[in-house]
């Protein structure tokens, strides 16, 4: 993704964020253990209601990834055809409690130059079936021959740099596989955990998974250093990684969000011979993640982009809906807001979203349909309480706003400090909430004075959030991730980028 500092580029909100302090040190949490329970779940009773809610919200950032495993049934039984129901014989009950198992997975791919003969037609393909049969380890070489080096996005370009990403790939046009995340229940699980729908909500959401790549991380030193996944469209909310059964060690996938870290360790070896298992992990794709070095064998994954779609969620299972009034969050918010937090004077209640959201221009973002984790929950709580929330891109103006860097030139005789005062009187506050997402400067603004320009841009794009705004959360420490957004994606940016957002609720003044 381009980290543009060229003022002639169309600037976007993302570029205007001030660098933030370093994130809190990461608390390592591994797959087998629960997140450390936060003592702040029960805020001390003496705090005012809004402070109690703030403390409660601080502990609500844990939901950003989920994963699981599916054993492979290496000798699949022939499936008995189901008999159609008749009047005397009801339909077969659904075998919902049967453990889900997968058949072995076959991968087929195009062979570019079969037999290496010139002039030979290019339409042959090869295949392997996993888990590999004993003594068929050499089959993996044929698969390797069908791959090409995997690039990634840096500074708006696709680059190959083994120091950052050492991996091989196949494009979806060159391979297919019998693996189906829908029929194995993986997509249902992701929908329930990462994109739940809420009873009565206007946003009933389902997940669509689109196969993206086959990747092979091979020893020695196959890896992908920390990055966030480049969103392919504004409705992309997540990424799914499926690890197919091939012996390897190392290659742990680490996913991070707001100082928390989950490790998916899928290594298999003679010590842990459970290689006849498919393992998977899904996460919100704005979460930073990395793949540690593979120290032996080959780590083979299929990656999918996950999109939020409107639907009934009944693709493979029953619709799962959540009654928001039963969430502790609902109780916490309604108790805190029982008393008007602005004492009748009116103001804005702000919730900095815990995640970043993809948008592109000029198409609107699909928010609130793509809200993630606690952001979705707070949105629904505000809705349920009839508070008319809005979700906006919120930008924080930098002290030295490099993109309009010549503002000081208007006051050449003043010191930086004095010139800065002029700037501060021009813009009432540093926080501006957008009615739209990207900020685009048209030619018109180039012709007016710098200070007027600032004000005009921001009042036409959004509104200033003044001291009457009470923030329930502090903005996520983004300094590292912000750099990662700008510099490292898994593909050079396709028109869609992430923005930081806030959910806002306006409380009118009493009698207004
Ligand atoms: O293979 C994996 O574990 C994930 C790969 C990844 O992060 C990516 O392709 O963007
Ligand atoms: Fe990734």
Quick gist of this model?
This protein is of the alpha+beta class and 512 residues long.
What does it look like?
The chain has 512 residues and is α+β, with helices and mostly antiparallel strands. It has two domains: 13-31 and 320-507, no CATH class; 65-72 and 101-112 and 123-310, Sandwich (Jelly Rolls), CATH 2.60.120. It is 17% helix and 32% strand. The protein has nine helices and 27 strands. The strands form five sheets. Strands 1, 2, 5, 8, 9, 12, 13, 14, 15, 16, 17, 18 and 19 form a 13-stranded mixed sheet that branches. A six-stranded mixed sheet has the order 24-23-22-27-21-25. A hairpin with a 2-residue loop joins strand 6 (152-154) and strand 7 (157-159). Helix 1 (49-58) runs antiparallel to helix 4 (328-338) and helix 4 (328-338) crosses helix 5. The radius of gyration is 26 Å and the shape is globular. The two termini are 46 Å apart. The model is unreliable at 1-40, 313-319, 400-408 and 479-488 (pLDDT under 50).
Which tags fit this structure?
single chain; 512 residues; alpha+beta; Jelly Rolls; 2 domains; 13-stranded mixed beta sheet; six-stranded mixed beta sheet; 17% helix; globular; disordered N terminus; binds 2-oxoglutaric acid; binds fe (ii) ion; Fe2OG dioxygenase domain-containing protein; Pro_4_hyd_alph_FE2OG_OXY; Oxoglu/Fe-dep_dioxygenase_dom
CATH class wording of the largest domain? Mainly Beta
CATH architecture term of the largest domain? Sandwich
- The tally of beta strands, per DSSP, is 27
Overall mean pLDDT: 75
Gap from first CA to last CA: 46 Å
* Strand fraction: 25-35%
